[in-house]
Amino acid sequence: MVIFSTILSGVLIFVLGQIFLKIILEPIQNLKKTISNISHCLIHDYVVFQNSDMTEKIEIKEAKKRLRDLSARLNSDHQQIPFYEKFHKWFKLPIINNIYQASDKLHLLFNMIESKQADKHDYIDLLRKQASDLLDIHLPDKEPMSIIQLKENIRELRG
């Protein structure tokens, strides 16, 4: 009888552990991975966002697709986590309102990339910064150098 109860309790603990893993931990890891991918996109594709007038159409299309997909995935990933309000503090996840707002900012950024507005670059910077703040993503302090700054630095190095 003792052996049977030991085996039964071991199986029960294993099953409960697997349920916790599949229902709680894996969705949390998926959300964290999505936030990480958003961070990568905001940093890696920044040049494409800011120079969309001079960048190849296929590169713009790919960057926009990544941004749109990540915006949608951000919303869907957090909805897979049961009791999100309780777990977000434990796992240092953004609050639900920040997720919704960040998704909206990313969607606005997606729409702004090929805009013809004169001040679109300011909006792109603002939306990028707001989305990163909402998701607690660190962006580099220094943005890429302009061509003029780059040429001046080269001249200085040549002496």
Itemize the secondary structure elements and their pairings:
Layout: H1 2-44, H2 46-50, H3 57-79, H4 84-90, H5 96-112, H6 120-134, H7 147-158
Number of helices: 7
What kind of assembly state do the chains in view correspond to?
A: single chain
- When the domains are counted, the total is 1
Work out the radius of gyration.
Answer: 22 Å
Question: Whole-number average pLDDT?
Answer: 88
Look at the helices and sheets and give the structural class. mainly alpha
What fraction strand?
under 5%
Helix fraction by DSSP (H/I, runs of at least 4): over 70%
Largest sheet data? none
Distance from N terminus to C terminus (CA atoms, Å) equals: 87 Å
**Strand runs, count:** 0
Q: Helix and strand string, N-terminal first?
A: HHHHHHH
Shape: elongated
Q: Uncertain runs with pLDDT below 50, 5 residues or more? A: none
Describe the structure.
Helix 3 (57-79) runs antiparallel to helix 5 (96-112). The mean pLDDT is 88. The protein has one domain (25-158). It has seven helices and no strands. It has helices at residues 2-44, 46-50, 57-79, 84-90, 96-112, 120-134, 147-158. It is elongated. The chain is 77% helix and 0% strand. With 159 residues, the chain is mainly α.
What distinguishing features does this structure have?
single chain; 159 residues; mainly alpha; 7 helices; elongated
Put the structure in a nutshell.
This protein is mainly alpha-helical. It has helices spanning 2-44, 46-50, 57-79, 84-90, 96-112, 120-134, 147-158.
